[in-house]
Amino acid sequence: MYETTWDDEDWPVSVGTMSGRARLRSVQALRRGQLAALRREIKTATIAARAGRPVITDLYALGIEPVKSHLRAQVYAESQRFTVGQRFSDPYGPADPTQRLGWQAMCQHVAGGFAHGIVVVGASDISGDLDEIEFTLRWAQEHGAFLDFVLAHLPAPSSGPLTCRGQR
Length: 168
Known about the structure:
Layout: H1 18-49, E1 56-62, H2 66-79, E2 83-90, H3 101-111, E3 117-120, H4 130-142, E4 146-149
Parallel strand pairs: 1-2, 1-3, 3-4
Helix pairs in contact: 1-4
């Protein structure tokens, strides 16, 4: 149907064919798995470093109605026995979260040592770019904090092809 070519590093230049899209999904799933493991490792180390002292988490939401996202993040944080710190949000923003005012304020709060974690509903509140998610994870780690997602515990969908109606 569509032609897919591969560059020197076996990355698809065009993902118009089913095999190209399947390979891209496979690579993305592997990367998401690696980032999930990194997220868990950083979270575990940060909590252990607190040595039984309270873990304060800030909540962040991206969207025009952050109240529901903050509530979901709060319920999750409290279920993890975290103390909820401040709530930050941006109604909309550029793909680069560091260009959002609410995100910047939250990062300053974390960098100042006032919070030990950041809880968001999902990775899309930060970015759709997996490299940006990794950067954020490592930034939090450098500042003695972790990043956690409310939706992290949900299983990934099966890898079968989708039909036009989204069914497998």
